[in-house]
Design brief:
The complex is a heterodimer of chains A (101) and B (230). Chain A has 101 residues and is an all-alpha fold. In chain A, helix 3 packs antiparallel against helix 4. Chain B contains 12 helices and no strands. In chain B, helix 2 packs antiparallel against helix 8, helix 5 packs parallel to helix 7 and helix 11 packs antiparallel against helix 12. The chains are: A mainly alpha (101), B mainly alpha (230).
């Protein structure tokens, strides 16, 4: 790659950093209206829903990986296991599954 | 810097580090096949630290797209972080602006999810630093290793590890869902709207996540206000 590559990385770094940094620094010490605060408090759970669905089903071309992985993850999580167990357990379930196909 | 908070952050971020392992490794490998040197590939992970945007950039470089277009695409893919860091700000302990500007660099979908779903009150800067550093370290190191090895994990491991980050999201969401209809509704509605965008291809992934998140968060707030008034 030529020097353009490094200019591109610089550009990518800047435009990735801006959306991360502006809210955290600009909103510091500012009291937002109650409605906005409530909406912002809702964001994490909504984000998780959008990050999980539908992408979890399409982790591999074979859709069964996603379906079984999703069932495993939700199943293990509903037993009250911590996040690490959910992650390792789901990987283990899929590793076993992949031996059978 | 509180050492205990920092270690607790490292611990909370370990599942991200595991989830990044296969993705960063594959990124390093793909970067190599795209023609990037070890330094160039690793530098992108060091300076950009954004999985989806980095993957897309490889596709665009291969297609011979102008660098400015790659930068523009990166911006569009990452606009959703405006929403996440605005939300995270409510959760973080007040601190010097320069410190917040520093850790803001490390906010990804994954570090945001881990931070924003922590139980209890305000999070310290030290805790955030712990979560971010272990995630960032994993991303950089495994990018480099992927490039150096120039080979992927055995197929069964690659396939089964691709669930890791999603399993982590599930593991973060489910404890809050129990006995809380609001959390369930927020996640389900956002997931449904996002699925609609996915299958209709009305919006690209970055926009789709942002719009479905915002729509769900506003809708549920609106419903619960009406509920209070009635």
């Amino acid at each position: 790659m030529g020097s353009w590559y490094w200019w591109m990385i610089l550009g990518m770094a800047v435009v990735t950093y801006i959306p991360r940094a502006i809210p955290l620094t600009f909103l510091e010490g500012r009291e937002l209206p109650a409605v906005v605060q409530n909406v912002l408090r809702n964001i994490p759970y909504a984000v998780l829903g959008a990050l999980i669905f539908p992408a979890i089903f399409f982790i591999q071309e074979n859709i069964w990986f996603g379906v079984i992985g999703a069932i495993a993850a939700f199943g293990i999580a509903f037993t009250g296991a911590n996040v690490m167990i959910v992650v390792l357990g789901s990987i283990a379930v899929l590793a076993v599954f992949s031996l059978f196909i | 810097m509180d050492r205990r908070d920092f270690s607790a952050g490292i611990k909370a971020g370990t599942s991200i580090a595991i989830g990044y392992f296969p993705i960063a490794l594959t990124f390093g490998l793909l970067a190599k096949t795209t023609g990037l040197s070890l330094i160039e590939a690793t530098a992108m992970s060091i300076f950009v630290f954004a999985g989806a945007a980095q993957y897309i950039s490889l596709t665009l470089i291969t297609a011979g797209v102008a660098p400015a277009v790659v930068v523009l695409n990166t911006f569009v893919v990452n606009i959703r972080h405006f929403l996440m860091t605005a939300s995270l700000n409510e959760k973080m302990q007040p601190d010097d602006r320069w410190k917040k500007a520093l850790y803001a660099f490390g906010i990804t979908d994954e570090t945001f999810s881990v931070l924003a779903t922590q139980k209890g009150h305000k999070l310290t800067t030290a805790f955030a630093a712990g979560v971010i550093l272990i995630a960032y370290g994993s991303w950089i190191v495994f990018t480099a290793i992927g490039h150096l090895l120039g080979a992927n994990l055995p197929q069964f491991l690659q396939a089964s590890m691709s669930i890791a980050l999603y399993a982590m999201f599930v593991g973060l969401l489910v404890p809050s869902m129990r006995g809380n209809r609001k959390v369930v509704s927020l996640a389900v509605i956002a997931g449904l709207i996002n699925s609609l965008f996915y299958f209709t291809e009305w919006l690209s992934t970055g926009w789709a996540i942002m719009v479905s998140t915002l729509a769900s968060a506003i809708f549920i707030e609106w419903i619960s206000r009406k509920g209070v008034k009635a």
